[in-house]
Amino acid sequence: MFGLANPQRFMSFTRPLVPVLWVVAVALLLVGIWLSFTAPGDYQQGDTVRIMFVHVPASSLGLMAYSALGISSFFALVFRHPLADAAARAAALPGAAFTLLALVTGSLWGQPMWGTWWVWDARLTSVLVLFLFYLGYMALRSAIDDEARAARAAAILGLVGLINLPIVKFSVDWWNTLHQPASLLREGGTALAPVFLAPLLTMMAAYGALFLAVWLTSIRTEIVRRRVQSIRARMALEA
Questions:
Q1: Where are the membrane-spanning stretches (predicted)?
Q2: Would residue 224 count as lying in a domain?
């Protein structure tokens, strides 16, 4: 793993891996969508239960992407490694997209279940804060012209945002909230019937493969951008 911290080795290793991830992500998405639409309606929620197959994976990937951003920020800040900084930067946009999708689908699911589009309970509020951390990270990087200073400032913000991850995860256990507790991973096993578990796990695997495909593609693009920028700077000095 640490050998891949070398940009050249990383580019060589991921060159054949990225197309495979894209193919796997598309295939799993197609299977997951088919399973989601062929699953029966819930006896209480009816067809609105299908939102779960989009909402739950999006929520999980929002947390996973920020974990990748935060850990990469740590290595970038402590070890000053440019590849770690590229990884953190590349995780921000897809992570924000997954978190926004979780917020939107959560509102669509909450309206028929709770009778309202939004409540300021612990889970929804902490996920909104997570989304704002993503936006703040991207805005901070864009606001500072000096890339080195922007990377350091954004890395610090990325590390601070890690504090919010356990709050999002355990908010339904720590506070009284409308949001239902965990159904998939909990003591005593899952509460989901197999007919709902299969499409949910398939969609979670699809989202995971999609994130990895987007993330690695973005890191590769960032490495190429920095190489081109370095070549241009060297040519300008020589001229």
A1: 20-39, 59-79, 91-110, 122-140, 152-172, 192-217
A2: yes
3-state secondary structure 12-69: HHHHHHHHHHHHHHHHHHHHHHHHHHHCCCECCCEHHHHHHHHHHHHHHHHHHHHHHH
Rounded CA gap, 95 and 85, in Å?
15
* Contact status, residue 207 vs residue 60, Cβ threshold 8 Å: yes
φ, ψ of residue 37 in degrees (nearest 5): -80, -20
* Cβ proximity of 7 and 220 under 8 Å: no
pLDDT at 211: 96
pTM metric for this prediction = 0.87
- The length of the chain in residues reads 239
Structural domain contains residue 152:
yes
Distance CA 171, CA 125 (A): 10
Q: What is the pLDDT of residue 136?
A: 96
Backbone φ, ψ for residue 42 (5° rounding): -75, 150
- The pLDDT, as a whole number, for residue 48 is 78
108: closest CA among 100, 99, 118?
118
What is the domain range of residue 136? 18-38+48-174+192-238
User: Measured over all CA atoms, what is the biggest interatomic distance in the chain, rounded to whole angstroms?
Assistant: 73
Cβ distance 192 to 183 under 8 Å?
Answer: yes
Determine the average pLDDT of the residues in 235-239: 77
C-alpha span between 166 and 205 (Å, rounded): 22
Quick: pLDDT tens for 76-104: 998 888 899 999 999 999 999 999 999 99
